[in-house]
Amino acid sequence: MLEAIKNRRSIRTYIDEEVEEEKIFEILKSAMQAPSSKNSSPWEFVVIDDKEILSNLSKTHHKSKHIKDAKLCIAITGNKERFLKPGKWIHDLGACTQNILLECTNQGLASCWVGVHPKRKVMDKVRETLNLPKNLIPYSLVAIGYSDEENKFIDKFDENKIHKNRFE
Ligand SMILES: Cc1cc2nc3c(=O)[nH]c(=O)nc-3n(C[C@H](O)[C@H](O)[C@H](O)COP(=O)(O)O)c2cc1C
């Protein structure tokens, strides 16, 4: 198993240490390397490091509180103008968000996916907080920072979820 896959966990506590610009750049490069339907690359990112905006984003819903303590947060949004096939953008942005999480782990950073799409109220709150233009649909938020929390490997493998050829 790839080290980054093995070591990635959702970490929600962060220490007061700056994240290097080069690491943020690497994370965004990995994000844009994700597969997408028809290679449409329908993503656009908002990198947030402003304390007040982070605090506002942390009030998005009951499971977004940890964003307030993160050094930065990346909002992953879909650009409607690049949605080439109905519904596919959701999968594209899922792959993209996962790439971000894995690159964070690879860079020694803690991260946690915060769900946004498809809850209308949550999407509206993110849109308003980030002043998103109409063509950008908020999909997810990823809180990022250094952490002193240990990310223990939990083996999630379950043989019962594997099926061979076809169900009889
Ligand atoms: C679509 C999606 C939405 C999620 N939303 C949240 C969220 O809003 N807040 C949060 O703290 N964690 C969120 N998570 C993280 C999950 O809670 C976490 O991945 C899961 O508990 C498994 O733990 P692990 O990531 O450490 O393996 C989300 C994960 C996914 C894939």
From TrEMBL:
It is an enzyme of class 6 (ligase). The gene is fbiB. Its EC number is 6.3.2.34. One of its GO terms (molecular function) is coenzyme F420-1:gamma-L-glutamate ligase activity. InterPro entries: Nitroreductase, Nitroreductase-like. The keyword Membrane does not apply. SUPFAM superfamilies: FMN-dependent nitroreductase-like. Keywords: Ligase, Oxidoreductase. This is Bifunctional F420 biosynthesis protein FbiB. PANTHER family: NAD(P)H NITROREDUCTASE YDGI-RELATED, NADH DEHYDROGENASE_NAD(P)H NITROREDUCTASE XCC3605-RELATED. Belongs to the nitroreductase family. It comes from Terrisporobacter mayombei. Residues 5-65, 91-146 form the Nitroreductase domain.
